[in-house]
Design brief:
Number of helices: 11
Helix content: 55-70%
Radius of gyration: 19 Å
Shape: elongated
Number of strands: 0
Structural class: mainly alpha
Oligomer: single chain
Order of helices and strands: HHHHHHHHHHH
CATH architecture of the domain at 87-202: Orthogonal Bundle
CATH superfamily of the domain at 87-202: Tetracycline Repressor, domain 2
CATH topology of the domain at 87-202: Tetracycline Repressor, domain 2
Length: 208
């Protein structure tokens, strides 16, 4: 599982000289690194400019405030998440999506999101940006997977947003956000074998 960066739409300039779109991804990568290191409260526009290797004017032509910059970057993360393809089986689809979640939360984006949790308590725009960015990608990928599995007759109807669906990534998210314990292949294998596969077997349509 890899993270890829695709070309996205160029946002309109706030005035002054025309924007150089190639700088946007450099700046967003810098903000993710800094958020992971210092968190939202200690972040400054000067630090972002220095980390990205650009002048402060380049930053302010794109975003007027730190808040604008962080919200835009968080919303834009969804462009960098490579959703796994249809494998033809619910079991291998689920495992591929588990790997997707692990890859994302262990990336600079995942570290940045975790650092934003305290600020999200009083910054609703950050919560909305997370919901419309990476969370929307995960939900869409899982919804499509359950729909395919239902069409193939592998699971009963209504699995999307069920407790079973929620449980598949719950332990991964717990380690990411709460315990900080390793999310290595051995752990994901154990979760898949001991938790996820029994849940999928229980989700099969009733015989007859």
């Amino acid at each position: 599982m890899v993270l890829v960066q695709e070309a996205g739409p160029v946002r309109s300039s706030r005035g002054g000289r025309p924007r150089d779109p190639s700088r946007d991804d450099v700046i967003r990568a810098a903000i993710l690194r800094l958020l992971a290191e210092v968190g939202y409260g200690a972040l400054t526009m000067d630090a972002v400019a220095a980390e990205a290797g650009v002048g402060k004017a380049t930053i302010y032509r794109r975003w007027r405030t730190k808040h604008d910059l962080v919200v835009d970057t968080l919303s834009d993360i969804n462009r960098a998440i490579a959703v796994p393809p249809d494998t033809g089986s619910v079991e291998t689809d689920v495992r591929a999506l588990m790997d997707l979640v692990v890859t994302t939360v262990q990336s600079p984006a995942g570290a940045a999101i975790r650092s934003l949790l305290p600020a999200m308590q009083y910054q609703p725009a950050l919560v909305e940006a997370f919901q419309k960015g990476p969370l929307a990608v995960w939900r869409s990928a899982f919804s499509a997977m359950w729909a395919r599995a239902e069409e193939r007759g592998e699971v009963r109807p209504g699995m999307d947003r069920s407790v079973t669906a929620e449980a598949i990534s719950a332990l991964i998210v717990q380690r990411w956000l709460l315990t900080g314990e390793p999310l290595d292949t051995a752990y994901v294998d154990e979760v898949f074998e001991t938790i996820v596969l029994p849940l999928l077997r229980n989700a099969r349509p009733a015989a007859g």
